[in-house]
Each structure stands twice: as C-alpha cells, then as structure tokens.
Design goal:
Bound molecules: 2-acetamido-2-deoxy-beta-D-glucopyranose, zinc ion
Radius of gyration: 29 Å
CATH superfamily of the largest domain: Zn peptidases
CATH architecture of the largest domain: 3-Layer(aba) Sandwich
Strand order of the largest sheet: 1-2-5-3-6-18
Number of helices: 18
Number of domains: 3
Strand content: 15-25%
Largest sheet: 6 strands, mixed
Shape: globular
CATH topology of the largest domain: Aminopeptidase
Length: 576
C-alpha cells in the first residue's frame, strides 16, 4: 500500500480510509476483548463428556424387597418424635469447647464434661453399646467398630464431633429458646450443636441402631469416630484418633470417610437443587510480625514510630491482595462446570456457559468465570488466598515511644497455592517496608535483611499450626458413583419425587477445615458431606451463632441417606 502512486486521486483518498478501517478493526479486535468474545462464541468447545457426568441412581437391594424402614424414617410421626427427643437430649448436655485447651493428661478436669455426654449416648443407644466394639482414644474420643463378614473389604468410616462452640454470655438473652434446651417448635430444633453437628452424630447412631435392630450383618466393616475438640482444630482428639486408626488399620485402609459438611441446596445461578460434598479444603496459616525499635521520650520522636511503620506495613499488605486463580485442581471449577452442563431450567446465558466450559484451558474465558465467582463475597475467596489483619497491639504510655508492636495476619490458602508461597509473599512485603526505614528482618528464624543498623528489627513467625490445602478427593470413580447414585436415589425417589430433573452431585470447597485434616492418610476418598436440603448454604442454620437451629426434616433426610448408603456400599462391587 505504501507503494501506491500519490497522484492517483481516487486511491489517495481511499487508501487512508481502508488503512484506517483496518486499523480501527484491529484495534477493536485486539485492543478491546472482541476477539476473545468472538472466540468464546464461535470456536467449538472441546469434549465435555468427562467434566460432570451424571451417574445412575444406586438403590440398595434391601429397598427393593422391603422399603418400610426408610419410609418410616422419612414419614412416620412416632419415629420423628423419638428422634427429636434423642437429638434434644444430646443438645442438653453442654459440650462447649474453647481455644487452646491443654491435652487431657495435662488437665483432666477440662474435659470431664464429656463423661456426661458418653453416659447419655450409652443410655440412648444401648444396642450399639451391646454390639459394637468401642475404643476410647485419648480418654474421650469415641471409635466404634462394627466388624463386617468380609475382611478384605475396606471399612467405611462415618464421623462427627461431640463438642460445640461456646455460647457467648452476652448473647444469651438474644436466643429465642435457651441454647442448651433443644426446643422443638414444630419445624426447627434450636440449640448449640443442633446443626454443627450433634445432628450428624445422632443421625449416624440412629442409623446403626436401626440396622442392628433388624439383625443387619454387614460385609464391609463400619467405623464411627467422634472427636471432642473439632472446634479447636482437633489437635487433642481427631489427631489422636487419626494416629490410632492409621496404626490399627494402616495407610489408605479406609473405603471412604463421610464427615460433616455441606449437603443439598438450590443454586442461585440455575435455580436447581444440587448436592455438593466438600472434596477439598483451603490451607491455613497465621503469620505474626513483631517490630522492635529503640524506645525514648515522645517529645523527640523519630519520623516514624514502630506503630506508624506497622501501619504502613498493614497498608502495603492490603494494597496487594492475592491474585485470584482457578484451575481444574479447584473443586470450584468442577462445580461451575456441573452448573453449566446440567442447567435444566436454562437459566445460564450461552456465553457464560461457554466461558465456564472453556475456563480450564482458555485464559480469557477463565478470567470471565473468575469475575462471575468474585461478584459474590461468599464465593470470592473460593478462588483466592484470603488475608485478614486480625490483631494489632503495641504502645504502653502517652509519653513513651512504643518499643514493641505486633501484628497478626490470618490467611486461608488457595487450592492452587501453598503455605510456603504465602510465607514468601508476606516476607517480601516486610522487606519492602523494612528497607524504607533501614530496619533488619528476621523471618522464620533466619536473618534475611541485615542493615547493620540499630534502628530496629522485624521478626516474622508462623503463629499456631499451619495447614496445607487438603489433597482433593478423586472424582467419578466407583466410590464417587455410589455417593452420587445414592444421593439421586434418596432425593429423587423418596424425598422430592416431584422434581423433574436429575439431582447432580458436584465437588465443592469447604471454606473451613473439619476433623478430616487429621485423616488424610487413611483414604483419598474424603467427603465433607451431610446430605440434607437447606434453602441456602449461607445463613439458614445460624451455625456458631445465636439461634443455631435445624429444620428437623433435614435430620430425617440425613438418616435416610446414611441408612441407604451404608447398605448400598456393602458389597465388593462398590470398590474402585
Ligand atoms: C415401597 O414398597 C411398596 C410395596 O412394594 C410399593 O408399593 C411402593 O411403591 C414403594 N415405595 C417407594 C417410594 O418406592
Ligand atoms: C470379599 O471381598 C473381596 C473383594 O475385596 C471379594 O473378591 C470376595 O469375593 C468377597 N467375599 C465374599 C464372600 O463375598
Ligand atoms: C542505614 O544504616 C546504616 C548503618 O547504620 C547507615 O550506614 C545508613 O546510612 C543507613 N541508611 C539510611 C537510608 O538511613
Ligand atoms: C501421614 O503420613 C506421613 C508420612 O508417613 C506422616 O509424616 C504424617 O505425620 C501422617 N499424617 C498424619 C496426620 O498422621
Ligand atoms: Zn462442626
């Protein structure tokens, strides 16, 4: 085009127009994201068959010959009243647990309240105590063993915890019913532990008692494990139970573990009910930084006191949040893919759907999906390491310079990241600020910046026990198919027969950590899963807060699930 004769009037006018148009077009294509949008709309998506396959319902054989017990669990009024009594009684025994408790041998009196709880369980479930072998681990940890007839089958393990979070005294008058009464108002049962998670504990025992009363004889052994300090990270109980089980049964010796977790809820995007066992957990690390500077009289201060400098560090930290990341390692991507592929009511736009299905390999599509997830504060951190400056302390006196100041930052580590990466990121920020003030930095026991100056020193340390992200549970193998299949059977055949779409089971991230952190060596098939329906995952059960409650219907659904699941996997064909 540059070689065109300049005296050609027609061309000389047109050329700039054509060049201009091309430039404008290219600018629109590449300068904006039009090109990316077009790619998502027009380029075919690679095969999605393996992303979120729908599994067939799994019905235990016993159901075909006699469905009366599971129907009794779900619909019988006497059964229900009895069950309410059992859960209410468990709530009435106060098992509150506080942080940083001493171990049992060091302080037996801290833990004696669990004796009462054990007495209650033994009185309420006599058949279990007559028939199952009970081992008490670290005095109050309960491990029940029901021996199966086929010892070559790996045992199934069901878990819950005996302890509950404390009720704050100044909130007592805000409770509609007292927190340790277990009041039933015709729909909800109220009280501390009603939904976290004496409901799960009682449901497991009720299920096993029903099976025992029918002279059920399992082929696959069943283990039941109840720790007693889950709300303080399980360091005293579940850790001991994990060690005991690993020693007794070996590494990778368990068929699957089902612990407390999410169940079924209607998804906001699709408006359909979806089951979401937690198949991954974010990591956890608290980092503490202390700054020590020379003291002195505040009438002749330096330009920046240690409080000023730590404030600057706080500012630097918050200005630099972690970048979001979403790869196929993250159950959240699988969850989005399940929504996109099983949007039975066609609520998701085609563009969003296509973006989700490309998000595993297309950078732009990935960024669109991240945007969608991060719109909501509750899902924002499913794809990002969180950082929260939770403690700052220092300063003693109005006329004295603060010599020693402390800051603590809590992190929940993204699935794709590691505790090490968070530590490195954190230290970089500290060094950046230290350099501006000629301060030295000691990080995790090592002097990483030495200014040879005596103006002060940062000391960075890990506070409390860090936790790497959990290994993710394998998907779509035979163990998964049974979990998803029994979910479909129970909720489609028995609980919501009017629903005209299949109930999909999708992986999800558990934002907190459960006792399963101590069970990683026992199996890869860990499901944080309490299958009953709640209207919204967020907020409807007031977990850890005033008026913790449970719609009792959910308790019956959970028991129906356990009852069918134990039987459905009680066969070699349920193995991988
Ligand atoms: C339960 O079994 C009875 C008798 O076989 C049958 O009529 C009924 O349809 C079954 N109910 C369900 C929900 O499968
Ligand atoms: C016991 O389980 C194994 C699979 O682990 C299977 O091969 C065997 O047939 C089972 N035995 C009986 C009696 O079912
Ligand atoms: C930092 O401290 C060293 C050692 O006392 C000194 O030589 C240097 O000038 C200081 N740098 C600044 C920027 O204050
Ligand atoms: C799991 O096994 C590893 C390797 O043997 C061991 O170091 C670790 O302490 C075990 N984890 C738990 C929670 O017992
Ligand atoms: Zn819990």
């Amino acid at each position: 085009m540059l070689g065109l004769p300049l005296d050609d009037k027609v061309s000389s006018k047109r050329v700039p127009t054509i060049v201009g148009s091309i430039v404008i077009l290219l600018t629109i294509l590449f300068g904006t994201n039009l090109f990316n949008y077009l790619r998502i709309e027009l380029v075919p998506i690679s095969n999605t068959d393996s992303l979120c396959p729908l599994h067939e319902p799994v019905v235990p054989e016993s159901f075909i010959t006699d469905n009366s017990t599971v129907l009794t669990i779900l619909h019988d009024e006497d059964y229900k009243l009895n069950s309410i009594k059992k859960l209410a009684g468990a709530i009435q025994v106060d098992t509150q647990i506080f942080d940083n408790q001493p171990d049992v041998p060091d302080s037996p009196e801290t833990w004696v309240k669990f004796i009462k709880f054990h007495e209650y369980l033994e009185k309420t479930f006599p058949t279990i105590y007559e028939n199952l072998e009970l081992t008490k681990v670290n005095t109050y940890g309960l491990v029940y063993f029901w021996k199966g007839s086929n010892e070559s089958l790996k045992p199934l393990m069901l878990t819950a915890h005996q302890d509950v979070v404390p009720v704050q005294k100044d909130t007592l008058d805000k409770w509609t019913y007292p927190p340790f009464e277990g009041h039933y108002d015709g729909k909800f049962i109220y009280g501390r532990g009603a939904s976290d998670c004496k409901n799960v504990l009682i449901s497991i025992l009720e299920t096993v008692e029903l099976l025992l009363n029918q002279n059920y004889q399992p082929q696959r052994s069943l283990l039941i494990a109840f720790g007693f300090d889950e709300e303080a990270s399980g360091v005293v109980s579940a850790s001991a139970i994990g060690r005991y089980l690993e020693k007794t049964y070996g590494k990778d010796s368990i068929y699957a573990i089902i612990d407390e977790g999410p169940g079924l809820a209607a998804d906001d995007l699709t408006g359909t009910i979806i089951a979401t066992p937690g198949t991954g957990e974010k990591g956890y690390v608290d980092i503490e930084v202390q700054l020590t500077t020379p003291g002195g009289h505040s009438s002749i201060p330096p330009d920046h006191t240690s409080i000023g400098i730590l404030s600057e560090l706080s500012y630097v930290i918050e200005k630099d949040p972690y970048s979001p990341i979403l790869t196929s390692k993250n159950p959240t991507l699988s969850y989005m893919q399940c929504l996109a592929l099983h949007d039975s009511k066609s609520k998701i736009s085609t563009f969003t759907k296509k973006s989700i299905l490309r998000a595993g390999y297309d950078k732009f599509a990935n960024s669109q999906v991240i945007k969608l997830i991060q719109k909501n504060r509750f899902s924002k951190y499913l794809v990002q390491t969180s950082q929260a400056i939770d403690i700052i302390s220092g300063g003693e006196k109005a006329n004295a310079l603060p010599e020693h100041v402390r800051l603590l930052v809590n992190h929940r580590v993204a699935i794709e990241s590691t505790v090490g990466a968070v530590k490195d990121h954190f230290v970089d920020r500290v060094i950046e600020v230290a350099k501006r003030h000629n301060l030295s930095v000691k990080a995790f026991g090592e002097l990483v910046l030495d200014t040879k100056d005596n103006s002060g020193v940062f000391e960075v340390n890990v506070f409390s026990r860090p936790l790497e992200t959990a290994p993710t549970t394998p998907l779509n193998d035979n163990v998964w198919k049974h979990l998803a299949g029994v979910t479909r059977h129970v909720f489609e055949d028995l609980i919501y027969p009017e629903i005209d779409y299949p109930i999909v089971t999708s992986p999800s991230i558990m934002t907190g950590n459960t006792d399963t952190r101590h069970y990683w060596n026992l199996t890869r098939n860990i499901f944080r899963y309490s299958p009953f329906y709640v209207q919204s995952i967020v907020g409807s059960t007031n977990v850890h807060s005033v008026d913790e409650k449970l719609a009792f219907e959910g308790h019956l659904q959970l028991t129906a699930f356990f009852y069918q699941y134990i039987q459905a996997v009680d066969t070699p064909t349920a193995d991988n």
